[in-house]
Amino acid sequence: MWVWIVCLLTAAPALAEPLCSKEVCDNYGYKVRISIKTALGDKAYEWNESEMFLFRATVAFAMRRYTSDETYNVSDIVVCNKTARVSFWFLVTSPANTAQLVPRGQVEAAVRLSRNRINSAFLLTDQTLQFVGILPTLAPPISYDTPPWLIVFGVVMGVVCAGIITLLLSTLLKRTRSKKNLLETEEEEDRRGSITANGRLCESLREKDPGRGHPDDVHLSKL
Amino acid sequence: MDDGERAKDIELRRAPEEPPNTDERPKWDNKVQYLLTCIGFAVGLGNVWRFPYLCQVYGGGAFLIPYLIALLLEGLPLLHMELAIGQRLRMGSIGVWNSISPYLGGVGVASLTVSFLVGLFYNTILAWVLWYLFHSFQNPLPWQSCPTKANHTGLLEECERSTPVNYFWYRVTLNITTDIAVSGDPQWWLVVCLALAWCIVYICFIRGIETIGKAIYVTATFPYLVLTIFLIRALTLPGAMLGLHYLFTPNWETLKNPTVWLDAATQIFFSLSLAFGGLIAFSSYNPQKNNCERDALIVGCINSATSIYASIPIFAILGFKAQSNYNDCLNDNILSLINTFNIADGNVTENNYGEWLSYLNSTNPYEVEQLHLKTCDLQTLLDQSASGTGLAFIVFTEAVIKMPGSQVWAVLFFIMLFTLGLSSMFGNLEGVLTPLLDLHLVPKCIPKEIFTGLICVVSFTVALIFTLGSGNYWLEIFNNYVGSLPLLVIAFFEITAVIYIYGANRFSDDIEWMTGHRPNLYWQATWRVISPLMLLVVFLAYVVVQAQDKPTYEAWNPQYVNFPAPEVLAYPDWVYAICILLAAVPCSFIPLWALYQFIPFVYKRLADRQLKNPFATDGHNILRHIFSQILFLTAYASLIYVVTL
């Protein structure tokens, strides 16, 4: 009995070994690269077993969220080939049967769905917590109902047009007003001229521009 | 002495000139307005995006030597002459040259044409600046990242292969075609921006110098404020010192190259906006007793000082951009290395990258070679120089993205460019309007405001060419052919007219009357000999250099094999003919006008010798008409012939 238990205990890790082989990893696993120092600089934390535990827990959470009924556990996430880069491969085993591996497609879909949550758990981004082979989801371009540039353009155009109209109107008003004034002063002068009896003589005597004079009147006045 | 002066006053006031308008000529509110307007006209976009480029290409500090020599021997004398002649004769460009000699009116007409053509494309550049300005109010800036494809699976290919900044300029803004022969459609967004640009110019111009004088307080001083802000900000950026060191390190070898001297001469000439007629127009609104010598010195020196001052923040920012690109390039390489060799993140930094690379090369050379690491060379990145629209809309916008608070810097930069360009537009439009108004070519029923509006509408309509898909290519043509050669010709005729036809002694007397002292030996020497000679040499050298190789242009063609590199194409023959016409037509007005004036003179002489023919007057007009038509036709025919050769 004891021999069987010992055999089982020694065989268990040996059974786990083929999981981290190259073919299995290529077919069922994903490589992860983590760059904490690049992302956080001085505030970088150290990558240790606890962080690894958190990673496995978040991936388990992602699988649960995606499948929404199967209860994945931390033990279902297998990690292999850890390096000092901080990169490793991980595989997901089915909770019902530890020997059965979850296909790549499902893992990818699950990670895509919860990518944001996984990133936030580690204070990293799509580039610094890199799942090799899973493209980062592109942010949809911001679309506006009215492009902001049209709004600014409309405001500036409105102000300028208003300014042009105001200036033109004020110039027009000034001109008509000065024309009216000129007409009024001319009328007044004409009226003053007709009050005196010998209007024409007064006109010729009054000091005006000789060029503006009426030569006929001057000629007549000589009579 | 007093009696002599009074006699001179009377004599000079009776000098042959057209009687001034019955309305009083408008005048500046104060001297500051006049100086600011001249400075604003001289200081334009070229000071910001042409001079730093030339400085960089021609060995930094060493370029200042030919530049300052050109300023002293060519720029200042011509500037002084234009300001003095405008102030003395109190007319726009056509009137001034007509007053000196009726045969020289063509010089004014040439100035008018050049001012009009330059105004067309200059305002289009301002329209582009407005477009970028309006887009700077978005967060994030639209030229920061590529747009995604329709199904969000990836980025647009054209953008991905080049850069987001290039894509925004060539595709989103210009929607440029692959070839100048392919016209494309007018882009509505550029049309509305162009309309707005012309409206802004019109509102500043409505009441002539009354409104310009108010606007210039803002448009002439604001660029200096922004340049100072940029200077302070740029000097605190990493890599700034690199750019400045690169800019100002003198490379004395370049002085042996004659094109340096040619470029310095042409740069100082175009930078001071000489031969446009605008300076003559501005100074014609001055009181006659005004020290134009001091004005010329002030304007000339401030213009050059602004060029040098502007190049400092520009190059600091370009140094910052080169440094950022270098760091990005290096970090990409580092990432490849640590991913391949599983080195801990953070162990390989920019500092020890070299050591790590050599170590890894010695241990695993094959794998390192497989990575195809990019060579990151800071010098190559710094050498990526750009001038003109490339500097403003591609290089600078890229640098602005990397600065914290990008929107603020982008808005400031584009407002600065707009005000710089607007103050230069005032001079251009003034060079068109004042001669036309002075010659009473405007019917009395049309008030000045409406006439100004008409000019703006006509200019806007013609400038719609530049809003087509191929508009940028046409703008380059206008920039290279209109804004260069004709000005040299006009300036040469200007200075020979003033010195040799009006008379250098008479001109010196005028200046003595206006300023109080006679122009000294420096002015005499430069006006009489040095400047005309220099202009002639520069003109000939320019023609020789231009004629040497067939002109080419760079086209943006996404289908090109080496895209994103621009495709270098040669101009088709019909386009080349248009280029020659653009350069030749303004210049041709000078001889044509002289001939047109000469014909009645010749005919009169002939008629005097013979008996008086009752039909002489009719025949005289018809003959003049026919002769001028034949002249025009032969001129154009010979031009086409030269082109096809």
TrEMBL record, chain A:
InterPro entries per the UniProt record, alphabetical: Collectrin, Collectrin_dom
Domain of life: Eukaryota
Pfam families, A to Z: Collectrin (PF16959)
Basic and acidic residues composition-biased segments: 203-223
Signal peptide: 1-16
Bilayer disposition of the protein: Single-pass type I membrane protein
Localisation: Cell membrane
GO cellular-component term (any): extracellular exosome
Transmembrane segments: 149-173
Residue stretches making up the Collectrin-like domain: 26-223
Annotated segments matching region Disordered: 182-223
GO BP term, pick one: positive regulation of amino acid transport
Record key words, sorted: Cell membrane, Glycoprotein, Membrane, Phosphoprotein, Signal, Transmembrane, Transmembrane helix
Protein name in the entry: Collectrin-like domain-containing protein
Native source species: Electrophorus electricus
Gene expressing this chain: cltrn
From TrEMBL, chain B:
Transmembrane segments: 34-51, 57-79, 100-133, 188-209, 221-248, 268-285, 297-318, 408-429, 450-475, 481-504, 525-545, 574-601, 622-643
GO cellular component: plasma membrane
Keywords per UniProt: Glycoprotein, Membrane, Metal-binding, Sodium, Symport, Transmembrane, Transmembrane helix, Transport
SUPFAM superfamilies membership: SNF-like
Molecular function in Gene Ontology: metal ion binding; symporter activity
Positions contributing to Na(+) binding: 40, 42-43, 47, 271, 303, 420, 424
Pfam family, one: SNF
Principal subcellular localisation of the protein: membrane
Annotated compartments: Membrane
InterPro entries, alphabetized: Na/ntran_symport (IPR000175), Neutral_aa_SLC6 (IPR002438), SNS_sf (IPR037272)
Topology relative to the membrane: Multi-pass membrane protein
Region Disordered: start-end pairs: 1-26
GO biological process terms, semicolon-separated: amino acid transport; sodium ion transmembrane transport
Xref: NCBIfam families: Na_transp
Family: Belongs to the sodium:neurotransmitter symporter (SNF) (TC 2.A.22) family.
PANTHER family membership: INACTIVE SODIUM-DEPENDENT NEUTRAL AMINO ACID TRANSPORTER B(0)AT3, SODIUM/CHLORIDE DEPENDENT TRANSPORTER
Protein name (Swiss-Prot/TrEMBL): Transporter
